[in-house]
Amino acid sequence: MEKTEKLKVAVLFGGCSSEYAISLQSAYAVLQHLDGERYLPVPIGITRQGQWMRYEGGIEKIPRDTWLQDPLCHPVVVLPGHETGALMEWGPAGPSQVAVDVALPMLHGKNGEDGTVQGLLELAGIPYAGCGVLSSALGMDKDLAHRVAAQSGVAVPRSEVIFKEDRPEHWARSGRAVGYPLFCKPARGGSSLGITQVENPAALACAVREALEQDDKVVLEAAVPGFEVGCAILGRGGALTMGVVDEIELADGFLDYGEKYHRSTAKVHTPARLDADTAQRIQNTAAQVYRALDCRGFARVDLFLTPKGEIVFNEVNTLPGMTAASRFPKMLEAAGISFSEMLDRILAEAVRP
């Protein structure tokens, strides 16, 4: 029987983003779980300054962020043109093409999760895993994602938008319109960076300034009573695979950057401590949001469940974390899909005509 050629998978990591370090952890986990019998990984690191490098050293250097110092690290660029589907590498022997079959972006936040890299790959004719340009851009913008979700019939929190050019008087009016307590968030950020829980008007200005350090568009969002739940989704259109619903139990405050990745006091229950009917309603709502935003491949939809049983949209992560502590692979694992099988499905979807 003829041996099938391995699929060349460009795993993209790093990037010009405040979530650079999380991207390294996600890429490391993915590279650990890619089936060596089926795939040939082509790790592509992007520095904090935006330089693309092909990395052929040991993957253990990626999460330690020492990969760039390895001599087996050479500059690459994406070649434009739908005929090539390749990268150009500048190695010791000079420039050479590196063919890839599919790209698997493990880039979180700006310049990776927001449609920019997806657009570059589209222009290069390289198939890629995950959401497309439009859904990535929409999902990254909390304001626009909420508008689309609301149009599809899903409940969203009351909110107002602040831009960098707006004066503090507008901040105060927006805060009054939303009501306290509220959350002040960078519109296009991730990993809860720059988010502040604001209890009263006196604390608003400081929170807005902190959010503006992450983005020039800020969302003031009414606090929703209850707790956060999430759902991992694979596939596109009508053929979706749903992970089990998980639940975040917080001792206090909200799921900030430290709690997301270190779990000092927060607990994530997978599956959520919910009855079957409520869990099904959450999955249905997550699928409704996923389709409304035209997501494909994979994404995690986060929602709130109120004490009255209402389901309210929070956000969609079009490139969710894949670290050892990440919720997305754990929700699928609880549904009987291993990390390696999850990657198989994601890549199969990416190269499907």
Automatic annotation (TrEMBL):
Subcellular location per the Swiss-Prot or TrEMBL entry: Cytoplasm
Domain of life: Bacteria
Catalytic activity, as annotated: 2 D-alanine + ATP = D-alanyl-D-alanine + ADP + phosphate + H(+)
Residues holding Mg(2+) 1: 302, 315
Cofactor: Mn(2+); Mg(2+)
InterPro entries tied to this protein: ATP-grasp, ATP_grasp_subdomain_1, D-Ala_lig_Van_CS, D_ala_D_ala, Dala_Dala_lig_C, Dala_Dala_lig_N, PreATP-grasp_dom_sf
Ranges in a coiled coil: none
GO biological process terms, semicolon-separated: cell wall organization; peptidoglycan biosynthetic process; regulation of cell shape
EC numbers for this chain: 6.3.2.4
Alphabetically ordered keywords of this record: ATP-binding, Cell shape, Cell wall biogenesis/degradation, Cytoplasm, Ligase, Magnesium, Manganese, Metal-binding, Nucleotide-binding, Peptidoglycan synthesis
Listed GO CC annotations: cytosol
Cofactor binding remark: Binds 2 magnesium or manganese ions per subunit.
Chain sites annotated for binding Mg(2+) 2: 315, 317
Principal cellular location given in the protein's record: cytoplasm
Gene3D superfamilies documented for this protein: 3.40.50.20, ATP-grasp fold, A domain, ATP-grasp fold, B domain
Keyword Nucleotide-binding on entry: yes
Protein's UniProt name: D-alanine--D-alanine ligase
Organism: Luoshenia tenuis
